[in-house]
Design a protein that fits this description.
Elements lengths: L2 H5 L12 H17 L2 H20 L6 H4 L32 H20 L22
Length: 142
């Protein structure tokens, strides 16, 4: 029997599986897009909040950024536990993050919740709701 049928239809076909940190960053990007209502601005904000702090921390210039920005969500991929008596390379490239995995995910989810709240409380714009274009005077005659 062919292995393709035994292993399932999606085995080995390059299916993507996102970790929770990536999913929270995607929700953050969606919420930012709803707040600013411009795709290019939302993409720029997402890159500035998630990718740039991670790159700066990777290069060693500001590792504290992985604790206070949405880039903290990458801690869910942490593969190197830290022990006081073990010497390890403390950089994101080697798998170390300054926060525990659950705390990093909580930081990113917190930013996503704040952005979703801002998007929910943003007033509707011109095309945002069903509003009459003119005042109907027939209703005033009663």
């Amino acid at each position: 029997m062919n292995d393709r049928f035994r292993d399932g239809p999606f085995r080995g076909r390059g299916t993507a599986s996102a970790d929770p940190g990536e999913a929270a960053a995607a929700v953050l990007a969606l919420a930012l897009a709803a707040v600013v209502r411009r795709v290019v601005v939302a993409i720029g904000l997402t890159v500035a909040l998630v990718v740039v702090p991670y790159l700066l921390a990777t290069w060693g210039s500001a590792p504290w950024l992985l604790m206070v920005t949405p880039a903290a969500g990458f801690a869910i991929t942490q593969s190197v536990p830290t022990f006081a008596h073990v010497d390890v390379d403390l950089s994101p490239i080697s798998g170390y993050h300054p926060l525990p995995p659950w705390a990093g995910l909580a930081v990113t989810c917190g930013y996503a919740v704040l952005a979703l709240g801002a998007a929910a409380h943003r007033p509707l714009g011109k095309a945002g709701g069903v509003r009459p274009r003119h005042h109907d005077t027939r209703l005033d005659r009663r």
